[in-house]
Design goal:
heterodimer; A: 382 residues; two-stranded parallel ribbon; 7% strand; B: 624 residues; alpha+beta; 5-stranded mixed beta sheet
């Protein structure tokens, strides 16, 4: 049975547990890097947030240097000049340039070989920009609180905490990426982020729902530690998770490649970059941030701790004499490790399959599973 | 049972068809935002926080100014304390900005004379004047009248009195409703909605004589008035009785004389007609002297406006000084009327104390303006006076002028991306889920149809614009819709693999997957609502469309997806070829297939072999 085949059937046997450790470490590094980038390079804020004036015109073939020369008489040669989209020229200056606004407009129109009406001009008062920023931050905080409440209601608070942690991670890392690569932050960026937060949570919810469903199956839940059960759940929904991410990413990629790349629409590009970064971060964090945090929180619950102890004891006693359900050729159980220790490099899949086999066929009648389990135990104890 | 399954689908399709039909019949079309059609967008905020009513007045002022320059359909919305003005298609941003940003002030000026609604024509006669010796008196509100009303001669002897004073200002306690003698039949007939009245006119006064020189009037103006008097005493409509209206930029605090119109409707309403014009003297006091005003109704059911001035030298004293000039009428206020103007139009021009012979100074809070008010006009005047007390000074926060070409390019790019995205997603879904994938796209089509109808309706009747942000939100929502399907389908496949029959799996899987969909869509909706409530401008539009689409998705998933998939899976076609639906064969079928293959018999048996292409029994028939 090929790996892809197993994946398609929801029977993949990826052991997520070691990956979680690595994922959390990687996330930690990413967060640190992001904070560093934010404080050293700072964000490249568009004028809607920092205030100022911006002119935009379609000017194929015009270079930044040419523009700089043309604007020198206005003292704007140090203004921010970029080529955005594929051939759109954008000049940004502070509000001091207000008086020369029209003259600059005329000059840029000449450069672009068009009329002044075809030059987009945008001017934003400085306090307005900071108000917008404050409003955006407020929206973000409220969103996080509201979603936490909603998820705590429908799932449980520990899962809600994991989901929110993933979202916060996404925001920090995305901000870091924007700071590191100095992409411009504009209102479309903010809109895109707030959308992504919704998506990131979607992904996470899919996994958590499955975990909760498996938790409800007592036959299953009592045979494996919470950690293993979560890892199992993830395998079961992996295809679902990948597919939803693909269908979310496809439209965004279209906007990025077709809309802004081929057709050069600037606003679309701003949207698309933010959406793409956010989606990737969101998918990553659902698997590698949200879930391990929940697992960590849940394993501390007394019930789960007792379960773990009991299972380890059972496995130890079962040792190499247990046929059928508990036996595993890889011998992880013979070592007495049971489900407690982290499997190292080799045998990553085997521990999970052992757990799976212990649990019996997934989703089948819990009564039968329990019965089989009982038999295995009694056999072991004989 | 089959009938039950079809019902939600039929109902939904009928609803959608109706919506689309209505949209087509009513010719509703989406309204494109400025960033797609080009134009000017300005955000203004008041420099100090002010009341909602004042902001409404400010908005009406802006609207009437923009109407005056002939721009089609400005869209002005109020979001909290922010005024967002969107003027599509405007070319001259500077002019529009000036119009929009300057503060309008309430001013009190003395009325020098009444003029007909239209300025003098080239042949020197004024339309509406009657060469009948009712010297210099024109009939207000009666622009096409060629015969004067001989019964009216209210103040024929008094050349500079107006014919029909519109309102009267009196001290409040005077309960003199009967003072409103119906002298002017013509005035009642001529004026439609102005608070025109029937008040007592000023009895002929001694001001009929030569105008005494006054130090408060501009000498040139005095000369002009003198000429007019002479001319009118001679019984002819004098040259210069009909002056051109003062353009808005000349209507300043310093202007010594202006000619302003009085409209039949309040500012901001469409199709206003000029009823009468007045020539006015210098500014005697401004709205800053006002404390406030309110519309009141007395026991007889008549509406009036109570006005309060501030105490002291800045308030009531100024008013009394102004009123004293008008009562008895003096050279500076020959008509005895004091006009209240706002933004280039006369809102009201009441007579000062018409019943009395001489002026009595009034107390700050004892002023009533009476006239032919109804509730609406009384409230309108009170609103204007309240605004005048605290005029809203607006500060331009953000200006965006978008060229039409860049807007069109953006729209094209968005639409093309959307089309490509649709194609790719369809391919993906069909690859993984075959016919069920097609059903997913059908659901998406349904949602898009409803969305189109809603956007068109909102655009045409509510003025809700579709911006680039909104379109992007919709493109992204393609993913949202399809995700709901994926969650359901995968759950379905899993249940079948675990041994459930297809028929029972369809229902069971829906229950649990809808719960997931609800949680996830619920999160999106929360996000959309928050974004909408806390933001301004395009972000709001995006939030609205995303939220709308997510709600549509919930509805379509619950009614459409469940029913269509149920019908499809229970069909005979699916029994025979589950692989065509992207579904795995269940255990029995698999067993039969395996046996058949082992025995080497034709895999066409029971049709199961059709979805077991390889010996490794890859059951769910997905394309690898």
């Amino acid at each position: 049975m090929s790996a892809v085949g197993r994946l398609l059937r929801g029977q993949s046997e990826i052991d997520f547990v070691p990956w979680w450790k690595r994922g959390l470490i990687l996330s930690g590094i990413l967060i640190v890097l992001s904070v560093v980038a934010l404080f050293t390079r700072g964000l490249n804020l568009g004028i809607e947030f920092s205030g100022g004036i911006s002119w935009e015109v379609k000017a194929p073939g015009v270079t930044v240097e040419q523009t700089r020369e043309a604007l020198a008489p206005f003292g704007l040669e140090f203004a921010k000049i970029q080529i955005v989209g594929s051939d759109t020229l954008r000049v940004q200056a502070s509000t001091e340039a207000q008086d020369e606004q029209d003259a600059v407009r005329a000059t840029l129109a000449e450069l672009g070989n068009t009329t002044p009406e075809e030059v987009n001009v945008s001017s934003v008062g400085p306090s307005w920009g900071s108000e917008i920023t404050a409003a955006a931050v407020r929206a973000l905080v409220l969103f996080l609180l509201a979603v936490f409440g909603w998820l705590a209601l429908r799932l449980e608070w520990k899962m809600a905490a994991g989901a929110i942690a993933a979202v916060v991670h996404d925001v920090i890392v995305s901000v870091g990426v924007y700071a590191a690569f100095q992409f411009e932050v504009t209102p479309p960026t903010v809109i895109a982020f707030l959308t992504i937060l919704g998506f990131s949570i979607y992904d996470t919810v899919v996994v958590f729902d499955k975990v909760q469903e498996n938790q409800g199956r007592t036959g299953l839940a009592s045979r494996m530690t919470y950690t293993d059960m979560t890892s199992l759940s993830m395998n079961q929904v992996l295809l679902r998770s990948i597919n939803t991410s693909v269908t979310s990413l496809l439209p965004v990629l279209c906007i990025l490649v077709v809309g802004s790349g081929i057709l050069g629409a600037v606003t679309l590009q701003e949207f698309a970059i933010a959406l793409a970064i956010g989606l990737l971060a969101g998918t990553y964090s659902s698997i590698f941030v949200a879930t391990p945090i929940v697992v960590w929180l849940k394993e501390r619950e007394p019930r789960n701790r007792q379960l773990r102890v009991r299972l380890e004891a059972t496995a130890h006693r079962a040792g190499s004499t247990a046929p059928g359900a508990a036996g595993d050729a890889a011998g992880t159980e013979a070592n007495g490790d049971g489900a407690g220790t982290e499997a190292s490099g080799s045998g990553t899949g085997s521990r999970l399959s052992a757990a799976r086999r212990r649990a019996g066929p997934v989703g089948c009648d819990p009564a039968t599973a329990a019965q089989e389990g009982q038999e295995a135990l009694t056999r072991a104890l004989r | 049972m089959k009938r039950n399954a079809w019902r939600p689908i039929i109902v939904l399709v009928v609803i959608v068809a109706t919506m689309l039909g209505l949209t087509w019949r009513q010719e509703w079309k989406p309204l494109l935002g400025l960033d797609l059609q080009g134009g000017l967008s300005v955000v203004l905020t008041p420099t100090e926080e002010t009341s909602q009513e004042n902001l409404e007045v400010a908005i009406n002022i802006i609207r009437s100014r923009i109407d005056a320059i002939g721009v089609a359909e400005p869209e002005i919305t109020l979001q909290g304390q922010n005024i967002l003005v969107q003027i599509p298609g405007v070319r001259d941003a500077d002019q529009a900005l000036e119009l929009v940003g300057t503060t309008a002030e309430v001013r009190f000026r003395a009325v020098l004379q009444t003029l007909p609604p239209e300025a003098e024509t080239t042949d020197g006669t004024t339309p509406g004047t009657t060469p009948d010796g009712t010297a210099g008196t024109t009939v207000p509100g009666d622009p096409t009248a060629t015969t004067g009303d001989p019964t009216s001669e209210p103040s024929a002897v008094d050349p500079s009195a107006t014919t029909t004073p519109t309102d009267a200002i009196e001290p409040t306690p005077s309960v003199d409703e009967q003072g409103m003698a119906a002298v002017e039949g013509e005035s009642a007939a001529g004026m439609q909605d102005t608070p025109s009245t029937v008040t007592e006119t000023v009895p002929p006064t001694t001001a009929a004589g030569p105008v005494a020189p006054s130090t408060t009037l501009d000498p040139a103006l005095q000369q002009q008035l003198l000429e007019q008097q002479i001319a009118s005493q001679a019984g002819q409509p004098g040259a210069g009785t009909n002056l051109p209206t003062t353009p808005p930029n000349e209507d300043t605090d310093e202007a010594q004389t202006v000619v302003l119109p009085q409209y039949d409707k309040p500012p901001g309403e469409p199709d206003r007609q000029v009823e009468v014009r007045y020539q006015l003297g210098p500014v005697l006091l401004t709205g800053e002297a006002l404390q406030g005003a309110s519309a009141t109704i007395n026991q007889s059911g008549e509406w009036a406006v109570n006005v309060r001035f501030k105490d002291g030298a800045d308030g009531i004293d100024l008013f009394n000084a102004a009123a004293a000039q008008c009562k008895p009428p003096s050279a500076t206020c020959p008509t005895g009327q004091l006009a209240i103007t706002l933004d280039g139009a006369v809102i009201s021009a009441p007579q000062i104390q018409p019943e009395q012979a001489a002026f009595t100074p009034v107390q700050a809070d004892q002023i009533t303006i009476r006239g032919n008010f109804d509730e609406a006009s009384a409230r309108q005047l009170a609103l204007v006076l309240n605004y005048g007390a605290l005029p809203v000074a607006l500060e331009v926060q953000q200006v965006q002028s978008v060229s039409a070409t860049l807007g069109q390019d953006a729209l094209d790019a968005a639409l093309i991306s959307a089309a490509v995205a649709l194609v790719l997603v369809t391919l993906f879904m069909v690859a993984f889920y075959r016919l069920l994938g097609l059903l997913a796209m059908a659901k998406l089509g349904l949602e898009m149809a409803i969305l189109w109808a809603v956007i068109s309706y909102l655009g045409s009747s509510q003025g809700l614009a579709l911006t680039l942000a909104g379109i992007t939100g919709i493109i992204v929502s393609i993913g949202v819709s399809v995700d709901s399907n994926i969650v359901y389908y995968e759950h379905l496949k899993e249940d079948i693999r675990n041994g459930r029959t297809r028929r029972s799996a369809v229902d069971k899987a829906f229950g649990s997957s809808f719960s997931t969909i609800l949680k996830a869509d619920g999160t999106s909706i929360i996000g959309a609502v928050l974004l909408w409530a806390l933001s301004v401008g395009p972000v709001r539009g995006f939030a609205f469309f995303m939220g709308l689409f997510t709600v549509l998705d919930l509805i379509a998933s619950y009614f459409f997806m469940r029913s269509t998939v149920a019908i499809a899976v229970r069909s005979k076609l699916c029994d025979r070829h589950p692989g065509w639906f992207g579904l795995p064969a269940n255990d029995d079928e698999r067993a039969v297939g395996r046996d058949a293959r082992r025995r080497g018999t034709s895999p066409a048996m029971a049709g199961v072999g059709a979805d077991a292409p390889s010996a490794t029994a890859d059951d769910d028939g997905a394309v690898l």
